[in-house]
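Email to the structure team, subject: N-acetylmuramoyl-L-alanine amidase model.

Hi all, the expression group asked for a predicted structure before they design truncation constructs. Nothing fancy, just the tokens so they can compare against earlier work. One-line instruction: predict N-acetylmuramoyl-L-alanine amidase, return tokens.
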Amino acid sequence: MKIMLDAGHGYGTSGKRSPDGIREYEFNRSVASLAKELLENYQNVTVYFAHSDERDVPSSERTDLANMLNADCFVSIHANAYGTGGWNSVGGIETYVYPSRPQEALELAQKIQRNLIQLTGLRDRGVKTADFHVLRETKMTAVLVECGFMTNKGEAALLRTPVYRKRCAQAIAKAVAEQYGLKRKSEGPKQYKVQVTFEERQEAEKLAGNLRNDGYNAIIIE
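Reply from the structure team: attached below.
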């Protein structure tokens, strides 16, 4: 499976920063890198980046690359903003799909949104639609996620922290794995446990002894 991760914008993109100077791209690229590490722990997965640390990559170039690689999934990672300047109280997380609401994209967006809310505890602004270039021009399942507001002082502080960035990456990777049924590379054979309750200890010891004779690890807990 080919997954394209897109850290929105770039270091030099004008206006994409918080009132106290956080560059949105710095957050976006950090989450993308962490998500890549997590996703590469799954079998038959190749992760690509649509962005670059050396230049601001145009949106058209990003979607062209994804289409050329015949990617199966495109996830664009962003931090949100509201207003024209200064701090405000608008906050929360929202995930976008194209207005036609493609079924697979909608399902993936819902999973990403749910996992992000669970892991971050921020306000749930829901899954929305928008005619963004990266959603319109990609030929594969594509979603765009806004991981918090740079113009909200509390959320901007979170966006700076490694812990919050890791949680966002975990939410995205978990959602993608759930959507496509990915299996971990280190996943071994499944194990099952059976618990049986007796009123008499003698009966418990008898069964445990039989199980041990058959090669099972049986224990008795009172």
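The longest strand covers residues 141-149. The radius of gyration is 23 Å. Ping us if the truncation boundaries need rechecking.
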